[in-house]
Amino acid sequence: MSSENRRQWNPGDKRFARVALKKAQILQAAQRVFLSSGYERASMDGIAQEAGVGKMTVYRQYADKRTLFIACLNDQCQEMLMPDRYECAETAEEARSMLIDYGHIVVDLITRRDIVMLFRMMVGEINHFSGLGDIFYEGGPGQAITVIERILANLYCPEEARLRAGAFFWASLGDAYERVLLGVVSAEDVSETFDKQIRLAAGIVVQ
Length: 207
Known about the structure:
- The chain has 207 residues and is mainly alpha-helical.
- The chain has eleven helices and no strands.
- It has helices spanning 3-7, 14-41, 44-51, 55-61, 65-78, 92-110, 113-125, 132-139, 141-152, 158-181, 191-205.
- The relative contact order is 0.10.
- This is TetR/AcrR family transcriptional regulator.
- Residues 43-62 bind DNA.
- Residues 20-80 form the HTH tetR-type domain.
- Keywords: DNA-binding.
């Protein structure tokens, strides 16, 4: 069956559901393999074995290891960052409230153990994987900053909204994130600090 015909399946079609389930199964297995072995040592054979499927099943979904790794990065961030959840705030008070809410979503995601491990692994692979940093940034921080920028769009000109969005994102993470990333503390240990950072950042960015 051609890829064109597959795209025409009804979402209720059992074949569609099986393909989606298999794809999720492969992504989850790939993430485990990449985290345990690193990008260079991971293999499509190993990922297929971890997923409990044939290697050709993996290749039917993903052309190569690079494509699969990029899919893993995007899958980790896309749903959790909720890019379509927030619209433009109409007032400064509404913007601050929305930023605090979204700040917690971002911090909860970016300090999750699997995401922290993925980031650590990615840093070690940047020299071997051209464009990896761009991929990770656009899928994670870049996407979150775009959401924040949209929240602020009615209150500031585009350039200032972008600058304030970036400032809010990084101020929300602050020193607490650096300590989590380095394994000095757990995210739970500094949850109150993150809350204070997020609220302070929202108050500074929207005045």
